[in-house]
Specification:
Helix content is 49%, strand content 2%. By secondary structure, the chain is mainly alpha-helical. The chain has a two-stranded antiparallel sheet with strand order 1-2. This is Peroxidase 4. Keywords: Oxidoreductase, Peroxidase.
């Protein structure tokens, strides 16, 4: 077995027991990994793992990431175990995060997919880019699609990767405008959310992104059919018409196998956008800071 293959197996062994004992870590590390792997900023380069310093402000405090990106200590634990077992700094933080994302969704029910390796880690990060380039929950469909297309992702990727919301929670601040302003929302669902998130309070309370939030399934899409999308951007994928997004939502709502397979394909596509390879970037010894 090659050193790289051994190290990948080690990551899997470290990840599994951590996720098995703390489901919250599964949810938060998945969110972190998807945000990183979406390559919305500069590519799959681990930039959002960097801590702020006296002379540098990273992406962890950006509006889309604040109180959402967590689980960094788990990445630290995996990185330390890999460096120790592999007798050196041979696996990048970006690759570790890509594998952790794959293994976390697999534990929760998604099909296993091959992760391509060889990424290197960024030397910097951008708070401004994170604030402006990660699509916010109030985007409409045209804005979402434009954002994805600007990063070589298409409409199918948009619908498939939005299905990652089958897992996790959202804070009131991300959907309060929807429940008090949108009309394309199930009345009973709307009433429930308003009880949890009064218009002028409860900003940090949370609600599941779908009704089976600890299972990787297609309930997210089934909820959209009933106008129970939690975020404005979620419900934008389905309006009950005959658009391509409507057709895809209907298709995935009844085809969990197809969703799982396509999710793996789109995750790989994201992970391969503008990777740092060769002499670009570095393999960080500590994922929180450059060497």
């Amino acid at each position: 077995m090659t050193t790289a293959a051994f190290c990948v197996q080690l990551i899997c062994r470290v990840v599994s027991p951590i996720f098995g004992f703390d489901l919250l870590v599964v949810l938060t590390i998945l969110i972190s990994a998807i945000l990183m792997m979406s390559a919305i900023l500069r590519g799959c380069d681990g930039s959002n793992l960097l801590d702020d310093t006296a002379n540098f402000t990273g992406e962890k405090t950006a509006r889309p990431n604040l109180n959402s990106l967590r689980g960094f200590d788990v990445i630290d634990e995996i990185k330390a175990a890999v460096n120790s077992a592999c007798y050196g700094n041979v696996v990048s933080c970006a690759d570790i995060l890509a594998i952790a994302a794959r293994d976390s969704v697999n534990i929760l029910g998604a099909p296993w997919y091959q992760v391509q390796l060889g990424r290197r880690d960024s030397l910097t990060a951008s708070l401004n880019d994170a604030n402006n380039d990660i699509p916010p929950p109030f985007f409409n469909l045209s804005s979402l699609l434009s954002n994805f297309q600007s990063h070589s992702l298409d409409l199918k990727d948009l619908v498939v990767l939005s299905g990652g919301h089958t897992i996790g929670l959202a804070r009131c601040t991300t959907f309060v405008a929807r429940i008090y302003n949108d009309t394309n929302i199930n009345p009973n669902f709307d009433a429930t959310l308003k009880n949890i998130c009064p218009v002028n309070s409860g900003g940090n309370k949370t609600f599941p992104l779908d009704t089976t939030t600890t299972v990787f399934d297609t309930v997210y899409y089934q909820d959209l059919l009933q106008q129970k999308g939690l975020l404005h951007s979620d419900q934008q994928l389905f309006d009950g018409g005959n658009s391509e997004t409507d057709d895809l939502v209907r298709y995935y709502s009844n085809n969990p196998y197809a969703f799982g397979e396509d999710f793996g394909v789109s995750m790989l596509k994201m992970g391969n956008l503008k990777p740092l390879t060769g002499s670009n970037g570095q393999i960080r010894m500590n994922c929180r800071r450059v060497n």
